[in-house]
Amino acid sequence: MLLLKNYYKAYNLKILKNEIDDRNIGLDLFRAVAVSIVVVGHFFEHFSDLHFTNFLPDGVEMFFVLSGFLIGNIFLNAEINSKNELLRFSKKFYIRRWLRTLPNYYLFLILNILFVYLGIYDGIINFNTSAYFVFLQNFSKPLDLFFWESWSLAVEEWFYLLLPAILVSVVVLFKNHFVKAYLYTVLILMIFPLLYRIFTYNSDADQVTYYLYFRKLVLTRLDSISYGLGAALVIKFYKESVYKSRFALFTLGVIGLMILKFYVIDWNSFFKQTVSLSFESLFTVMFLPMFYFAGIKQKILKAQIVFIAIISYSMYLVHLPLIYLIKKYCFGYNQIILLVIYLTSIIIVSGINYLIWERPTTKLRNRIL
After folding, report:
1. Alpha helices, DSSP H only, in 83-147?
2. Is 24 exposed, middle or buried (0-12, 13-18, 19+ CB in 10 A)?
3. How far is C-alpha 181 from the geometric centre of its chain's CA atoms?
4. CA-wise closest residue to 225 among 277, 303, 294
5. pLDDT digits (tens, 9 = 90+) for 302-361
6. Most exposed among 98, 208, 328, 331, judged by the fewest C-beta atoms under 10 Å?
């Protein structure tokens, strides 16, 4: 009862008030839309032939560009003027990122290992499992043993690690000119993954090969987050122009993604494996200005959006284990009933995890800093 009472309090407007006031509600909506696409899309992939996400942007791609945008704003707003300042800031950045992401990741990694070991759902546990603890499960080759959603988390963690290191190196080259170093870092992170995809192009690839070796590897996908970094730079220096162009950019993004989804479908084509992934990130990042400048006044709606946004990381980690549990123990139920059970379970379990694990570790991080 106490746990449920605390859960209710976290959902209450009074508890969320400070977070609502301090957050960009449009970006929270962007995050809420992204996680909704992922969790609902995976449900229909497992329980239905209906692939409604064919008409929507990729939720993980939205997470990538949003992550890059937020990280870019953190660095651009830090007023860094020298290499030493960047080094000090980078140290804090590592602490903030890792204490924000790693506790939840390792909790669910251990849970996934336990569930596979107990036979609750399928997977492979062997000596390669250790790679998951250092985010090497999909660095240059896919292990694809279990904990399949972790591929995107590995991309994010390697990006967090590499960004400050590259920035520091480029700042040294440009003699402490931070903005110029930031721009060149963005270009480096955009170009090198594209070159790697070109170098590893496989004319015999099928759909599985495309997803495992091009769409879901660290070395092939770091550029997706860098498009968010670039968007942060553009909005910082051309905010008014981006604001005026937000509807046109959104429309162009929708049209571009539809073309990629319905006309670029040959898994073994050079364009599909290389440049199309760059265009997908570019078209997805075009959605950001519409959300960034969005304003929502209705307090109840804002509270719902913020709530989904703050538990979105837990939702991402929770949703596939719940799908496997439902498939194992709720077989035979009507799809609508399964969907209700699934979505309700995600909200409850993610909310509880946020309260008893994610939120306390975040507070610990703040005390350390």
Report:
1. 83-117
2. middle
3. 25
4. 277
5. 999 999 999 999 999 999 999 999 988 877 778 888 999 999 999 999 999 999 999 998
6. 331
CA R_g for the chain: 21
pTM greater than 0.85 (yes/no): yes
Listed as own residue / partner, the contacts of 332-341 with beta carbons closer than 8 Å and 24 or more positions apart are 335/47, 335/48, 338/43, 338/47, 339/43, 339/47
Can you give the pLDDT at residue 13? 45
| Below-70 pLDDT ranges, the chain | 1-21, 50-53, 176
Contact between 61 and 45 (Cβ < 8 Å): no
Please name the residues in contact with 326: beta carbons below 8 A apart, sequence gap of 6 or more. Answer: 338, 341, 342, 345
Residue that the structure tokens 């538990």 belong to: 311
Please give the backbone phi and psi of residue 337, each rounded to the nearest 5 degrees, phi first: -65, -40
Cβ atoms of residues 180 and 174 within 8 Å: yes
CA-CA distance, 7 to 353, in Å (whole number)? 10
Closest Cα partner for 145 from 158, 134, 157, 132?
132
Pairwise CA distance, residues 291 & 246, whole Å: 9
Farthest-apart Cα atoms in the chain, separation: 66
The dihedral formed by the CA atoms of 117, 317, 17 and 292, expressed in degrees to the nearest 10: 170
Distance of CA 363 to the CA centre of its chain: 22
Q: What is the pLDDT of residue 117?
A: 92
Determine the Cα angle at 164 with ends 159 and 165, to 5°: 95
pLDDT of residue 334: 81
pLDDT in tens, 134-170: 999 999 999 889 999 999 999 999 999 999 999 999 9
pLDDT of residue 263: 84
In the chain, the N- to C-terminal Cα span, in Å, equals 34
Alpha carbon distance 314, 351 (integer Å)? 8
CA dist 304 and 16 (Å) reads: 10
